[in-house]
Amino acid sequence: MVRVLSYYEIVPFKITDTQGLSFDLVAQLNAASPPSLQFTLQHLPRNRINNALTSDEGLIVLLVNPAWFGDKEKTRYFWSESLFQDGNDVVSLITSPISYTGIESLKGKKMGALLGRKYGLIDKAVEDGDIIREDVNDLGRNLRKLNAGYIDFTILSRTWSAYLINSQFLHSKFKRSPFKDFTRHLLISHSLKPHVKFITDWVNSLNHSEQWQLTLKKYGIKQ
User: Considering only CA atoms, which of 47, 39, 43 is closest in space to residue 7?
Assistant: First the structure.
């Protein structure tokens, strides 16, 4: 049994202990795999996943990007093609909307941030005093603070914020403006080399899979 690791314990990746996008993806992989090659999903914190990747165990890490694992050149691990396009958005109130056109459009604003998270160009603007940063340890709390008017904007995962806004019918409250795009892939450890072709071919086949397209639609992921 091959462990498939994920550090996403938020919607829509994990909705309950048995439901969510991550569960659906692994179930579809198992359905396509021979009985001798099966996969089991396990949720772990990012630091424990990093530790697991230093072992000789054959592992997959779910829905991540090479840049996040210091592997832009894709030499440390095997990587699948993209499963879908995602990104981070600047989220603001409809009543005080922000259309992100560059760092200048955020200056003079108060930002709700996630404790310990780095935000690229925004970090320099915070350091220079051009943006006020308030940290919390919960993504949902930033959305609540925004709704209450305590902050001007926050940066949220497109997949997470879209699912939450759609499922709770909050379209009339929040505006989302693209901040940074990225793609989501499967990281495949080198110990799984005998199975890499099968796994990557399967990911490529998802482009023509009606079931996968319906899965993305179910969670509000647009391609």
Answer: 43
The token pair at 36 is 């001798």
Q: Which amino acid is at 112?
A: G
Report which DSSP code applies to 202.
H
pLDDT grade for 171, boundaries at 50, 70 and 90: confident
Helix, strand, coil shares of the chain, percent, nearest 5, are: 35, 25, 35
Contact 37, 51 (CB under 8 A): no
Rounded Cα distance between 142 and 45, Å, is 21
Distance CA 131, CA 111 (A): 7
Q: How far apart are CA 220 and CA 151, in angstroms?
A: 26
Q: What is the pLDDT of residues 63-121, one digit of tens each?
A: 999 999 999 999 999 999 999 999 999 999 999 999 999 999 999 999 999 998 889 89
Range of the domain at 30: 2-85+182-218
Domains held by the chain: number: 2
Instruction: Answer yes or no: are the C-beta atoms of 84 and 12 closer than 8 Å.
Output: no
Both 124 and 200 in a single domain?
Answer: no
CB 184 within 8 A of CB 104: no
| Position 223 in a domain | no
Q: How far is CA 157 from CA 45, 61, 108, 154, in A?
A: 18, 18, 23, 10
Read off the pTM. 0.89
- C-alpha to C-alpha distance for 6 and 171, rounded to whole angstroms: 29
